């Protein structure tokens, strides 16, 4: 059994009601239904000097800069990352091609209630009182089966682009992981990660034009379960991260850059030294159709994660008990709002 299948099996143990999977038919909506109306947000940061760090991977100080960004922000943007701009543009184009399909066609690839892949609302939907102005498409391992449902005779291009993107994202994720670990004076040899392959997923996100973007939410505030997440957000802004003491700050797109953010597993490993950054997606005010592509890089599903003793300062106690990746995914599937509380010592 592959790691991908095992990760999918974890989600299979936490089925979601069909009403929390099926998106709106956005093409037929002329006003925001009450089911999707959120309170108007006024908690943006007014400090326009605050800017999430941009790190050049070719910078000799990249290790130190990445460590500082993880500690102070929980996120950064990365340039000179080795992913060609034309591949980023190709994956965005394929995502747009998918989400532009008629609703009845997209429904042929609908995620099953106990499934982990396919078309549908974000898995976090059941935890919020209102629905989000969002549709997604989740891929673990091969995209072929769902792509055939969408394009019975014309799926080769989509599959080729997605598979090339997944391979290059995995290489970059491993490079960034080593970079971040090096900033902590930690190396893979210090960790017991040889119990399988990384658990990964690719998430295509669509935020269709909204008749009243101030009253709807693209993606509600959440942290990622992953070790780290790499996001391509194209040229249309919408991503915001929460910084303590400042509020919500927009992560403005930088041409060709990728957003990297700390996930829950890295937060646990560092004994909360690196914050698992709270983030959300707000809707574009100009009525543009925004898409983004998130690559979630996790540890092997049977891997045990706990605060590294090597990182603990003199007299500092570990904040969290050891937990396997599978157990933590289970916990977050049940206790979405405070999953870390349940493993706190």
From TrEMBL:
Domain of life the protein comes from: Eukaryota
Q: Which PROSITE patterns match?
A: FE2OG_OXY
**Which pathway is this protein assigned to?**
Plant hormone biosynthesis; gibberellin biosynthesis; Hormone biosynthesis
A family per Pfam: 2OG-FeII_Oxy
Q: Which UniProt keywords apply?
A: Dioxygenase, Iron, Metal-binding, Oxidoreductase
User: Might you give the EC number(s) for this enzyme?
Assistant: 1.14.11.15
Q: Metal-binding among the record's keywords?
A: yes
Q: Which cofactor does it need?
A: L-ascorbate
Record GO biological process: gibberellin biosynthetic process
Cite a single GO MF annotation. Answer: gibberellin 3-beta-dioxygenase activity
Name residues in a coiled coil.
Answer: none
Q: What is this protein called?
A: gibberellin 3beta-dioxygenase
Organism, scientific name: Gossypium tomentosum
Show the taxonomic lineage. Answer: Eukaryota, Viridiplantae, Streptophyta, Embryophyta, Tracheophyta
